[in-house]
């Protein structure tokens, strides 16, 4: 309940700032909201609300730092594909990590072009956008190692979230796909942990809270 109120207060502060300036940057929004446990649908609804009340969102690239809890917001140029310490993986997984590391990254212009093609039903464009961000999934999955699921399972669940992000990405909002996809990947992984890795089902928002406590301790 306390986090819920904090999130509401944060959104209100963004609205007030946006009304004063007439616009908000994507960086400002991400820095404010990244640390909260929010579903991708909630994020989308917030953007829609900003637009409905006349607050323009200025594209300025993906964020670097989460100002609320100090976590890095994913930057696909700096993603580490090394295996987490203490995690034993077999050769197929190691080969997978090696292969996705070879997939070239996309420029912002290429992302927009692929997104336009996806809107037209181009399956090849969907595949390319997803493949170029597989390393992002690995980077996020590494944060959840030791929380009740195997590293490979975390990657697989994260990939499902990535596919959702590919299908729902709106390039017209002007932000990088990798940052948008982070919300979907995190949601898919935490939901999988809640569904599969607990004897007693724990709500998704509580799993995320527990994970934060584990990191602190």
Brief sketch in words of this structure:
With 217 residues, this protein is mostly helical. The protein has helices at residues 2-21, 26-33, 40-52, 91-100, 108-119, 123-131, 134-141, 151-168, 177-196, 204-216; strands at residues 23-25, 56-58. The radius of gyration is 18 Å and the shape is globular.
Describe this structure in words.
The model is unreliable at 61-74 (pLDDT under 50). With 217 residues, the chain is mostly helical. The protein is globular. The protein folds into two domains: 1-73, no CATH class; 79-217, Four Helix Bundle (Hemerythrin (Met), subunit A) (Up-down Bundle). Helix content is 60%, strand content 3%. It has helices at 2-21, 26-33, 40-52, 91-100, 108-119, 123-131, 134-141, 151-168, 177-196, 204-216; strands at 23-25, 56-58. A two-stranded parallel ribbon has the order 1-2.
Tell the overall outline.
globular
Order of helices and strands: HEHHEHHHHHHH
**What's the CATH topology name of the largest domain?**
Four Helix Bundle (Hemerythrin (Met), subunit A)
CATH class of the largest domain: Mainly Alpha
Contiguous helical run count: 10
Overall pLDDT confidence: 80
Instruction: Report the sheet-strand fraction.
Output: under 5%
